[in-house]
Amino acid sequence: MNRDGYVIVHARGHPDGKRGRKYAGAYIGRRLLSTEVVHHKNGVASDNRIENLELFGTNAEHLAKTIRGQVPKWTKIGIQKMKEAIARSAKMRRPQTRVRTAQDVHWSP
Questions:
Q1: Which of 53, 69, 68, 67 is nearest to 106 (CA)?
Q2: CB within 8 Å of 48: residues ≥ 6 apart
């Protein structure tokens, strides 16, 4: 288990060893895209029961649902760091080569 509470799995050909990602991929029958995010509904990172996992197509979709209605307490330094990270990410972003279907992006058993 890592310091964030995630159970880590060391499996060949699986660069992200988080067990929740492995279970979600097995459930939908394919390896997850690097942009996809697995959310633990009850907030317990080690609870990888399929009914506790929810898959989002992007981190933006994940955050839009999970932090909706919450008011963050951003510092000026934090806002500046976020803007810099967004700018760096935009420069590095490559277009996706795979077309996702509606079934690929968001599910919840």
A1: 53
A2: 7, 19, 20, 23, 40
- The token pair at 97 is 């080569």
Kindly report, residue by residue over 58-87, the tens digit of the pLDDT.
999 998 888 888 877 788 888 898 889 888
pLDDT, one tens digit per residue, over 4-43 is 665 555 555 544 457 888 888 888 999 889 899 999 999 8
DSSP string, 54-85: EEESSHHHHHHHHSTT------HHHHHHHHHH
Q: Which amino acid is at 69?
A: G
C-alpha separations of 85 from 4, 29, 76, 82, 91 in Å: 22, 33, 14, 5, 10
Tokens of residue 62, six digits = 């994940």
The residues pairing with 37 across neighbouring beta strands, listed in sequence order, are 56
DSSP state of 97: S
DSSP, res 94: -
